[in-house]
Specification:
- Helix 1 crosses helix 4 and helix 1 crosses helix 12.
- The chain contains 13 helices and no strands.
- Helix content is 79%, strand content 0%.
C-alpha cells in the first residue's frame, strides 16, 4: 500500500503545475510562435537555476565538467524535442488532449527497454492496447485520420519517454539543480537559432506573452522539475509515475475552467481508457516492488 508522504504531495503539486501549464502554453500560441515561446521559458528557467546551483553547490570542484556537459547535452536535446513537438501540437489541439496524449509516454518507456533486450510483462501489452484504443477515441472523430496537433503530441511522447530513461541514468551522479539547469541551458541554445532566424520574435510578442512565459519558465520549468527530482529521492519511480500521470486530469480541469474547452462523450471515454492503460502499465511494476519488499523483510539479518 502506498503511504502519502510529503514527497508524494510534492509530486501531486508538480502534476497540478504541469497540468495547468498546458493552459498557459495554449494561451501563449495566440501571441507568440512555438520556438520563440520555448526559448523564452527555457532561458528564464536556466537563468533562475544556474546562479542558485553555483551559489549553493560550487559545482566545479565536485562534478567533472565533461560529465555535466554530456548529461546536460543529452537530456537537454530530448527536452527540446519533447517541448518543441508539444508546443507545435498545441497550435491545433486542446490543452486537455495534449496532456492526455503526452501522458502516454509512460507506456513507451518499456518499449525502449524492449529495444535493449528487456522484455516487458504480459500485462504491459494489454496496457499498450488500451492506450492505443484511448488515443484513437480521443484524437479521431470516427475515421482513421488522427488530428495533426494530436499527432505532434504523440510524437513528442517518444521524446519524453527517452528523457525519463536519460534522467534515470545521469540523475544519480549529478546535482538535481545542476542537471536541471544544464538541460534547460542546452534547450535554450537549440531553440534560439530557430526562434531568432525563422520566427523573429519581437519585444511586443514577449510583453504580450509575459504571463504564460513566467508561469512556464519559473513554476513549470525551474520549480516543478526541481521538485520532481527532490521527491524522487524517496518516492519509488512507479508510484511517482502514477501521481504524475494525473497532470492530464488537472489539464482537463484547467482547460475547462480557463479556456472553456470541453470534451465530447467519445473523447471522455478515450481519455478514461487511456488513463486506465497508463495505470495498468505501472500496476505490474508496483506489485512486483511490493512483493520484493515483503520478501526482504523475511530475510534474517
Amino acid at each position: 500500500m502506498m503511504r502519502f508522504s510529503r514527497d508524494h504531495f510534492l509530486l501531486l503539486l508538480v502534476a497540478a503545475i504541469w497540468g495547468s501549464t498546458f493552459v498557459a502554453q495554449r494561451q501563449a500560441m495566440t501571441t507568440m510562435e512555438p520556438f520563440s515561446f520555448n526559448m523564452a521559458r527555457f532561458a528564464l528557467a536556466a537563468s533562475f537555476l544556474l546562479p542558485m546551483w553555483w551559489w549553493y553547490e560550487r559545482p566545479w570542484g565536485r562534478v567533472p565538467l565533461r560529465r555535466w556537459i554530456r548529461a546536460s547535452t543529452i537530456t537537454g536535446t530530448l527536452l527540446f524535442g519533447g517541448f518543441a513537438l508539444q508546443q507545435i501540437g498545441l497550435l491545433e489541439t486542446t490543452a486537455s488532449n495534449a496532456a492526455f496524449i503526452t501522458a502516454s509516454y509512460i507506456v513507451f518507456v518499456p518499449l525502449f527497454g524492449l529495444l535493449q533486450g528487456i522484455r516487458p510483462p504480459k500485462l504491459f501489452w494489454y496496457a499498450l492496447s488500451a492506450c492505443i484504443l484511448g488515443l484513437y477515441l480521443l484524437s479521431t472523430q470516427g475515421g482513421l485520420k488522427i488530428h495533426r496537433g494530436d499527432a505532434f503530441e504523440l510524437a513528442g511522447s517518444f521524446f519524453w519517454a527517452a528523457h525519463v530513461i536519460a534522467l534515470s541514468r545521469y540523475g544519480r551522479h549529478l546535482s538535481p539543480i545542476g542537471l536541471t539547469a544544464g538541460q534547460f541551458l542546452v534547450a535554450t541554445l537549440l531553440s534560439a537559432p530557430v526562434a531568432l532566424f525563422w520566427e523573429r520574435p519581437t519585444i511586443e510578442d514577449v510583453t504580450a506573452t509575459l504571463g504564460p512565459i513566467l508561469w512556464a519558465g519559473i513554476l513549470s520549468s525551474a520549480l516543478a522539475f526541481t521538485l520532481q527530482v527532490v521527491a524522487l529521492r524517496t518516492v519509488r519511480p512507479t508510484h511517482a509515475v502514477l501521481i504524475l500521470s494525473l497532470e492530464s486530469v488537472f489539464a482537463a480541469l484547467a482547460g475547462a475552467l480557463w479556456l472553456g474547452e470541453t470534451l465530447s462523450a467519445r473523447q471522455w471515454l478515450g481519455a478514461a481508457i487511456l488513463l486506465m492503460g497508463i495505470f495498468l502499465a505501472q500496476w505490474h511494476e508496483t506489485s512486483r516492488e511490493e512483493a520484493l519488499k515483503r520478501a526482504e523483510t523475511r530475510i534474517p539479518h
